[in-house]
Amino acid sequence: LIALAVERETFIEARARLEALTASHDLKTSILRAVSHDLTTPLTTITLQVSALRRKLASLGVTSTAAEMIEEQTKRLHRRIDNLLAMARLESGMVRPSREPTPAADLFRAARENLPMLRPMKIQIAEECPELDVDPSLVLEILVNLMENADRASPPGAEIELHAASHPADSTLTRVEILDRGEGISDSSDTARRGLGLQIARAFAEAHGGRVEVGAREGGGTRAVIDLPSAPIAS
User: Fold this and answer.
1) 100-229 in CATH: which number?
2) Which pTM was predicted?
3) What 3-state class would DSSP assign to 225?
4) Which end of the chain is more exposed for a tag (fewer CB within 10 A), N or C?
5) pLDDT per residue as tens digits for the range 159-173
């Protein structure tokens, strides 16, 4: 009887902890949605006003670097808010990744188009690299966020590399790497200084059953490793 009572008490405590965690997660998701919504409205207004200002200046033959910068940064902030909302939906189970076979080359191309950078880029895709079984829109955001980090950390003119190949130890995965020669980050350091971009990238990768790891690159710089599921090979 004593054993049964102890077991029952343990079960009640475990259930209470689980309910508290669930409530905390629901609260975090609700707050994130509310904050994101409240930020989106003024940002949209700023974007529209700056775009109108640029058009007016262009009609007068005037180019405004400041207006261009404001427009670029508001678009970047819009994208980050959209990422946060998507992350909240994925974590709450409201949506799931919409997977389809996607070549790494297509993802790299889209990332470069969405993130213009004034620096050389080297793309290396192994001949045997399989297609990825992923949601292209989410993986695009993984790449853009990690490439932004690499761009910010790298000195002017330094090259950023994008690699894709079969996972060296797991045939069900494809490994994507983003390498830079920036300030570097140690394997044991706090990666929180990489900001929201890294957290978003990890959340989107984990939604696919994958992962993102960031560490020091041999010879200096940072190596971001993204492991994602490979698409089944048609028989």
Assistant:
1) 3.30.565.10
2) 0.77
3) strand
4) C
5) 999 999 999 999 999
